[in-house]
Amino acid sequence: MKCNHDHIKPEEKTEHWAPVLLQWFRTHRRELPWRCGSRRDPYKVWVSEIMLQQTKVEAVRPYYDSWMDRFPDIPALAEASQDEVLRQWQGLGYYSRARNLHAAVQEVQSVYGGSVPDTKKEILKLKGVGDYTAGAILSIAYGKPEVAVDGNVLRVFARLYRIGDNILSASVKQQITALAKAQIPADRAGDFNEALMDFGAMICIPKHPRCEACPLTAYCQARRAGMETELPVRLTKKHVPTENITVVAVTDAARWLIHRRPDKGLLASMWEFPNVIGSGEAGIRAVRDLLQRMGLTVSVKAAPIGTIKHVFSHKIWQMTMYKGTVVSGKLIEKEEWQWLPCQAYTTVPWAGPHGKITAMI
DNA sequence: AAAGCGGGGAC
DNA sequence: GTCCCAGCTTT
């Protein structure tokens, strides 16, 4: 595909369509829980922006409500335990978001006296806050003239300016950031950024853009060229490997043996049933060996109690679950291994599909 | 620059 | 099945 720069004439580059978008926004603005009130609470904007990373509005809505119920302000979140924070986030995905937000809120509480900083330099230092989130908080909560370039903005601009290069490349993101800066109204940056999000989610959608309802067709170079469904261009994803996982649910005196995953990596710090990578007899033997090293001799029933296929963005877990009972021994005291009373299963943050296993047994 | 990191809804 | 979402961090 031919690319971009050559097609853009100078007068089109500077064409000023922001007022048209803002006019559309006036009547089509989505009512969302984090958009209530004329003055926007920086903490609420922050939480919503973190939750919305790579996550659709409808998936966030219940989590946001429940989160604000439990952690209504910065002090409440700063005081919470990591397990409780992860428990609130359980099921939303990308759990480093929760851990980073927790740590960053604690820093805001201790370093900034509980006030979210209002400069790009300071806010970018907070864990989990990158270019996009910094721009979103500064513009929406503080009215600063910052851009917030996310997936919606990349798609919208790729179409408006007929940019045929991979929108995920650093150079295209840089180019679009410059185009957005030239477009942003100094006094209504927050509205402009939110308008772009709503526009991207409702009109300039990925597959079949609703050009018949679009207020910006007069400005859209992709539409003019009949290329609106071919843009934007995205990098194709590679094959995702499958891992066979053997899980053994070990019960003893109405308790389950659970293990907390390492504090880095996939599903960090969340709880799981004893498991290993591997399947069949070898998988079962490996789990028994693992538990033996923890001081427990366990017998495992040969018949599996179920299977789960769990798809991540970069790998697939093909899990087979077995039931086990303690024959002898005592669990070696370690913080990451615990006996969990069965009725307390809602109190720990479960690692992905492991939460479902509680229902199977 | 590329890979790691979740889960779900739309098609 | 595929696509991709109000991305950030680490390598």
From TrEMBL:
Its cofactor is [4Fe-4S] cluster. Transmembrane segments: none annotated. CDD domains: ENDO3c, NUDIX_DNA_Glycosylase_C-MutY. Residues 51-202 form the HhH-GPD domain. GO terms for molecular function: 4 iron, 4 sulfur cluster binding; 8-oxo-7,8-dihydroguanine DNA N-glycosylase activity; adenine/guanine mispair binding; metal ion binding; oxidized purine DNA binding; purine-specific mismatch base pair DNA N-glycosylase activity. It catalyses: Hydrolyzes free adenine bases from 7,8-dihydro-8-oxoguanine:adenine mismatched double-stranded DNA, leaving an apurinic site. InterPro entries: A/G_AdeGlyc_MutY, DNA_glycosylase, Endonuclease3_FeS-loop_motif, HhH-GPD_domain, HhH_base_excis_C, HhH_motif, MIG/MutY, MutY_C. Binds 1 [4Fe-4S] cluster. Keywords: 4Fe-4S, DNA damage, DNA repair, Glycosidase, Hydrolase, Iron, Iron-sulfur, Metal-binding. Its EC number is 3.2.2.31. GO terms for biological process: base-excision repair; mismatch repair. The keyword Ribonucleoprotein does not apply. Belongs to the Nth/MutY family. Adenine glycosylase active on G-A mispairs. This is Adenine DNA glycosylase. It comes from Megasphaera cerevisiae DSM 20462. The lineage of its organism: Bacteria, Bacillati, Bacillota, Negativicutes, Veillonellales.
